[in-house]
Amino acid sequence: RVLTIERFGIGAHLAALERLKQQLAAEGLFAAGRKRPLPRIPQLIGLVTGNDAAAKRDLLTAITTRFPPAHVLVAETYVQGPRAAPSIATAIGDLCARGVDVVVLARGGGSFEDLLPFSDERVVRAVAGCAVPVVSAVGHEQDTPLCDLAADVRASTPTAAARLVVPDLADLRERLARTRQAL
Known about the structure:
The chain is of the alpha/beta class. Helix content is 44%, strand content 13%. Helix 2 (54-66) runs parallel beside helix 6 and helix 3 runs parallel beside helix 4.
């Protein structure tokens, strides 16, 4: 005889995340109509990432390779554990206050539990409420934290985020040369 059935472990987390996802979607935080385009050539790029993270190194290398004059303001924060969610939300707000043109939220892959802070309501609301466009480059291709749904653009990897955020300087120079020749 079964008297009660309860979700336990990851099942309980998944059920809570699904309820939060439905609530935030009902508020319009994931609506396609609120997504903003990324700036073509950002003057200042904000990066929220972990200290000494591979995602940080990959993103900075890709940005400086594609567009060496880029200026990046890095906000290192906790990206897993109980202090991560409030730290990430605060870092997003701080970067917006510093006048960045775009924010990139980057973290490499990890277990379901490691990525939970990126589905925390505080982080999702910080992403949705950010005054500038946000690119989410969290986890691997198969991971979909709730911040991905609230972000203006989702990138599958930090390197892909760099390709979205800055143009390729060589391409810009080539187009400029063609335009000059046409004139």
